[in-house]
Amino acid sequence: MSGAADLIVHGARLLGAPGDAVAVRGDRIEAVGAAAAILRRRGPRTAVLDGRGGLLCPGFHDAHAHLVATGLARREIDLHGLTAAEILAAVRACAGRTAAGRWIRGGGFDPALFPGGGATARRLLDETAPANPILLRSHDHHSVALNSAALRRAGFLPHPPQIAGGRVETDDGGAPTGIARETAAHAAEECADDLTQDERLAATEAVLPALFAAGLTALHDMSGSRHLSDLRALDDAGRLPLTVFASLAPHDVTDRALRRPGRRLRVVAMKAFLDGALGTRTAHLLEPYETVAGWKDDAAHRGIEVLAPEHLREAVAAAAAAGLPSWLHAIGDAAVRRALDAIESAGSPAGEAPLRHRVEHAQMVHDDDLPRFAALGVTASVQPIHMAQDAPLVRRHWGARAREAFPLRRLLDSGAVLAFGSDAPIETFDVLAGVRCAVQRTGRDGTQLSADEALTAGEALRAYTAGAAQAAGAENETGALAPGRHADLVLLSEDVGARPEALGDAAVAATILGGEIVHGGDAA
Q1: What percent of the chain clears pLDDT 70, i.e. is strictly above it?
Q2: Looking at residues 363-371, what average pLDDT do you find?
Q3: Is residue 144 one of the residues assigned to a domain?
Q4: Domain total for the chain?
Q5: Staple 177 to which of 95, 120, 265, 506, CB 3.0 to 4.6 Å?
Q6: Do residues 242 and 383 both lie within one domain?
Q7: Predicted pLDDT at 2
């Protein structure tokens, strides 16, 4: 039977499409509709997957992640939830199996564990592992702790330089304490990579099965130009199975060679940082942070403006002139406003279709700026999973303005496009965990954020599919169950749209990438 389908999935409700079955031929969806009609396309070699009353979705996008860094994070010391003493013990153990002079890296610590005084991060880490440079990242990746060897390699000793958009903290005598924030932290990280490219590629490939288990078939990489050569190497070698929509640093937007099309790699945007993060109180706010015991910042502290307004306007305009939209990291309400202002002033190249600009994170949005997303055609690229960690921090640091945090319902109702991701490796790339956060809006400690900003499970899933595809300019290829689209599919064990109460039990039963089952799926 030459016209037979290669794969049929039936017996599941379809997200965003009528019917309960899909036929796949090659790497494309061939037909969508009622199972009775679709099953007539079955041939002797057709694989048939029973959906068992679940929900069949287009393949999930992670609209904000760092693929190579996610792989590398699995090689590092996991510091999440550890006390200062436990962190030092973990570093000491790692030093015992690491050659002198090689970097020791870890991630997930709370900067408040190293408050200064006589117990600075630098002194404690020097005493723990003096033969190795050490770099430990905070949970949000916006602060690092360094020992003397690492400070020296980063050029922060004997006296730290002035770094625009960043800070190397010092004691009363002007000596670095070992804590660096924002662009200073990023500069230190640039020095802390002594892995070969083969080691980086192996670490990246090792994480791919876990991505498939989460239902991911596409990823929007936010690393700028940093890991682009690694992604290119994987793609050129045919070792990059999922589609990656990558970004460039602002200084690279005119480099046409960096933008050459690949097999699965597409360089489609410019990525820039406008502010910091909530946990380190470096997100840029219109009004000061709440006063919090234990923090030394003065009452006027409003975070850090990482990119000056004139440089921001220049970067967005240069990217637009090169035909690239801007993906702008903006967490605080002041940064979000500056992002929207810069996008509005840049416009689109004459005679060209509007660029798919995005505000990445948009965790705090002033009421006056909510309608501007839809009016300007700017996607709100949000990571609901951040609520798991950040809900109590929102209450603590933003006080009464917590109502402005993660305004998902108001953004969607205003007509804005929502695209959801994870910010992996900062948070888990588990899509269903992100859906639960968008629906329940509850932190891991039970802190509840504004319940009236909750989405339905179906709305959240569309932000991981159709919304994310539109944000990448790929809505004609992916993000929907329709003939001719890529055969990237995810089968959920529960129909969480029709049965919201089943969200807690839902799992990814099968992931199909380009017509091939890459996770789960007992096909007959």
Answers
A1: 96
A2: 97
A3: yes
A4: 3
A5: 120
A6: yes
A7: 56
In angstroms, the CA 506 to CA 54 distance is 9
Report yes or no on 83 lying in a domain. no
Helix (H/G/I), strand (E/B), else coil: 41: helix
Q: How far is CA 161 from the centre of its chain?
A: 30
Q: Which of 141, 174, 191 is the last residue of a domain?
A: 191
- For the cut 50, the answer to whether the pLDDT of residue 270 exceeds it is yes
333-346 helix and 309-321 helix, angle to the nearest 10 degrees? 40
CATH code of the domain in which 235 resides: 3.20.20.140
Compute the average pLDDT of residues 387-399. 92
Helix (H, G, I), strand (E, B) or coil at 194: coil
Q: Which two tokens stand for residue 45?
A: 């070699």
Same domain, 184 and 230: no
Residue type, 519: H
**Rounded-to-10 torsion of CA 250, 251, 257, 258:** -50
Give 381's contacts (C-beta < 8 A, 6+ positions apart): 63, 64, 220, 327, 358, 359, 360, 361, 362, 419, 420, 421, 471
Is the predicted pLDDT of residue 189 greater than 90, yes or no?
no
The angle that helices 386-398 and 431-440 make with each other, rounded to 10 degrees, is 40
Q: Is there a single domain that holds both residue 284 and residue 413? A: yes
User: Of the residues 145, 171, 191, which one is the last residue of a structural domain?
Assistant: 191
Could you give the CA distance from residue 481 to residue 32 in angstroms, rounded to a whole number?
7
Q: Which of 397, 388, 394, 461 is nearest to 426 (CA)?
A: 388
Reported residue count of the chain is 524
If asked whether residues 178 and 257 sit together in one domain, one would say no
- The distance in angstroms from the start CA to the end CA of the chain is 18
Mean pLDDT computed over every residue of the chain: 93
- CA atoms of 311 and 61, how far apart (whole Å): 31
Structural domain of residue 164, as residue ranges? 103-191
Same domain, 185 and 203: no
Does the pLDDT of residue 394 top 50, yes or no? yes
Lowest mean pLDDT among 183-192, 346-355, 497-506: 346-355
Q: Assess if residue 73 is contained within a domain.
A: no
For residue 223, is it within any domain? yes
Structure tokens at 51: 């959906």
């790497």: which residue's tokens? Answer: 27
Phi, psi of 350 (to 5 degrees): -55, 130
- Asked if 358 contacts 411 with a C-beta cutoff of 8 angstroms, the reply is no
Report the pLDDT value the prediction gives residue 367, as an integer from 0 to 100.
96
Looking at the fold, whether 320 and 428 belong to one and the same domain comes out as yes
Statement: the pTM of the whole predicted model exceeds 0.85: yes
- Does residue 87 surpass a pLDDT of 70? yes
Better pLDDT: 108 or 320: 320
Q: What is the CATH number of the domain that holds 165?
A: 3.10.310.70
pLDDT digits (tens, 9 = 90+) for 469-492: 999 999 999 999 999 999 999 999
As a whole number, mean pLDDT of residues 233-248 equals 97
Same domain, yes or no: 186 and 321:
no
